[in-house]
């Protein structure tokens, strides 16, 4: 059985407590800047472990020292508490690995 989709009110409440995260359609998205490429890759290695532990797997891209992450619950067809819980854990992980929020995650934007 697929997890239940979040109501719009529940989603907005969750986003209010998730610094830097935003909704893009059926996805929760965030971008981080790291001190170096090596630090960005180390973050993604820890993110992979976190995702495995939660059995909920986000998508991410690494561009030099920038990591953009997005999550959705595919089998539910949108956003669920699994995405919110993963976003919370990713927020903590980024804070402990020198990740800084990217207010504008457009590719090629100045840091």
Note down, in words, how this protein is organized.
- Strands 1, 2, 3, 4 and 5 form a 5-stranded antiparallel sheet that branches.
- A hairpin with a 2-residue loop joins strand 1 and strand 2 (27-33).
- 39% of the residues lie in helices and 21% in strands.
- Mean pLDDT is 92; it is low at 106-111.
- The protein has one domain (8-101): Transcriptional coactivator/pterin dehydratase (Gyrase A, domain 2), CATH 3.30.1360.20.
- The chain contains 3 helices and 5 strands.
- The chain has 111 residues and is of the alpha+beta class.
Briefly summarize what is shown.
The protein is an alpha+beta fold.
Number of strands: 5
Using the alpha-carbon principal axes, give the shape: globular
CATH structural class: Alpha Beta
CATH architecture annotation: 2-Layer Sandwich
Unreliable residue stretches: 106-111
Helix fraction, binned, reads 25-40%
Strand-pairing-aware structural class: alpha+beta
Average of pLDDT: 92
* Global Rg: 14 Å
Number of domains: 1
Give the termini distance in whole angstroms: 43 Å
In the CATH hierarchy, the third-tier topology is known as Gyrase A, domain 2
Task: Write the CATH homologous superfamily.
Answer: Transcriptional coactivator/pterin dehydratase
In N-to-C order, the SSE pattern is HEEHEEHE
List keywords for this structure.
111 residues, alpha+beta, Gyrase A, domain 2, five-stranded antiparallel β-sheet, 39% helix
Write the layout of secondary structure elements.
Elements: H1 8-16, E1 22-24, E2 27-33, H2 37-54, E3 59-63, E4 66-71, H3 81-96, E5 100-101
Helix pairs in contact: 2-3
């Amino acid at each position: 059985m697929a997890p239940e989709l979040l109501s719009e009110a529940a989603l907005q409440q969750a986003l209010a407590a998730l610094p830097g995260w935003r909704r893009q359609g059926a996805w929760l998205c965030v971008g981080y800047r790291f001190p170096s490429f090596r630090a960005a890759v180390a973050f993604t290695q820890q993110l992979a472990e976190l995702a495995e532990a939660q059995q909920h797997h986000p998508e991410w891209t690494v561009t030099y020292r920038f990591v953009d992450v997005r999550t959705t619950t595919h089998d539910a067809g949108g956003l669920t508490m699994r995405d919110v819980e993963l976003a919370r854990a990713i927020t903590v992980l980024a804070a402990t690995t020198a990740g800084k929020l990217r207010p504008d995650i457009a590719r090629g934007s100045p840091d």
